[in-house]
Amino acid sequence: MSTWSFRKRRSNRKLVLARRSDGLGQRLSAILNGLRLANLLDAEFRLTWPVDGEGAAAREDHSIVAAEEFFSESFLRRHRYQGDPGEGFGFPKRAEDLDDLRSQLHETPLGLAAPNRPLRKVVGPSVPDVDGSFAAEFDLIEFHPDVHAAMTRAREVPLGEGSVGIHLRAGDVLFGPLRTLNRFWDKCIPAPIARALIEQLRDESRSVFVFGQDADLVRHLCEDTGAIEAETLRPGMSGHQQSMFDIVLMSRCERIIGARSGFAGLAANITGKSVEPYLRLISPEDGVNITRADLAKHGDQYHPLQRAFAWWAAYYRTRDERPYDEAVAMVSAAVDDDPDNPRARLRLASLHFEHGQLDLGHHALMAALVRDRAAGDELRSLNAYGFAWTRWDNRWLFDSFDRAIDAGLGLPRAFRAVQRARDNDAEGAYADVGGFRAWLTESGPVPVLAGLPEKIEASFPDQLELARAQPVT
Predict the structure, then answer these.
(1) pLDDT exceeds 60 at position 56
(2) Is the backbone of residue 450 left (phi > 0), alpha (psi -120 to 50) or beta?
(3) Mean of the pLDDT values across residues 271-285?
(4) Dihedral angle at the C-alpha atoms of 260, 263, 265, 271, nearest 10 degrees?
(5) How confident is residue 4, by pLDDT bands cut at 50, 70 and 90?
(6) Residues 62/24, Cβ–Cβ less than 8 Å
(7) Could you give the domains of the chain?
(8) Dihedrals φ, ψ of 39, to 5°?
(9) For the whole model, what pTM was predicted?
(10) Average pLDDT, whole number, for the chain?
(11) φ and ψ at 303, to 5 degrees?
(12) d(CA 335, CA 331)
């Protein structure tokens, strides 16, 4: 690829805008892609850096600070976009060649929005120079002096023989509300699998650096295996300095092992590597065996939510092969360690429904609703069933709930009512909540369900409005 250089600004040049508002890895990945596209297409690069108390910037597990604390003043002066980032920008699509991509740029009013995903997956391999190392682009980002100092320290760390970086994401996906959504189940390496991988690499005499958000877990793993805890190499740094230290140090490792994480993907991108997904290194059945053995031996070292996630990930990878009794045991263990997470409770009910155990399924749903009422959020499990971002999250539950309803069970109709409202099926939603109300009348008073039909019905206008504005795909 030709040497990158910032060109003199021309008012008629189109823009490539990096405008992500989520985590640090995704934002910086979009910036790298934007710099590459701007150079290829003779466009001007611009960025936004929202810190508005919403999204990733509002969560402690994402190291998002004000742009003025992260980039140099001169970099922001040249490249910060002052307009509305939602207006006038198109998304790049698969292109036959560079001319095709250039046509996409010029067909938009202002330019293209830089993707955060690898360019080769977005525009395709036919466009030259969309793959390989992004080291040149990374070097073009002018960071704040404090951030630059942290990166310099990361470049000075001796790596040792056969260095491997393992990234153990946690944060909102494991400890926060996103853990209720199954679409994120593969974004973290379960603790037992991490231990097994580290032990295997240490047996090969490799130098292993462990990066992660759960400091207690990382410390336990490193103390037990002799791996290197990245946190011990960066004392006194602020959160965003730590993140940039980790990204640079990880990028220098010969291998990077992780899950579906933008953070690890960014580190790999900088030096033209690929993250080795743990799912390809440990077979599904081995994952089950490792999880059982490790949690029996080391489970007390792990946070309960780490244990719950480990059980869930082991089950979910083998869900089509697991016998009913084993599946129930694994999902029940996840419920025990994370009782406020509707995901495992809903799956436990559906497992029972699938195998004709209607009473057990009913009791699983009742237990979820009792827990929800105690937490002051009576619609929590109902919304988790029907209020998913995509049908991918919960569609594998729907058939079993439908069969339970067809068999005469009334409680699942409350869940399907919410799902139908989210699907913009007002007629079906009101029919189901009516059926749920009739079942309650026939069953006699159930204190924990008192007033629930009315609360479900009261939620319909908002859910139907959202369904029309943001259809579930």
Answers:
(1) no
(2) beta
(3) 95
(4) -160
(5) very low
(6) yes
(7) 15-142 (no CATH), 147-281 (3.40.50.11350)
(8) -70, -45
(9) 0.89
(10) 92
(11) -60, 145
(12) 6
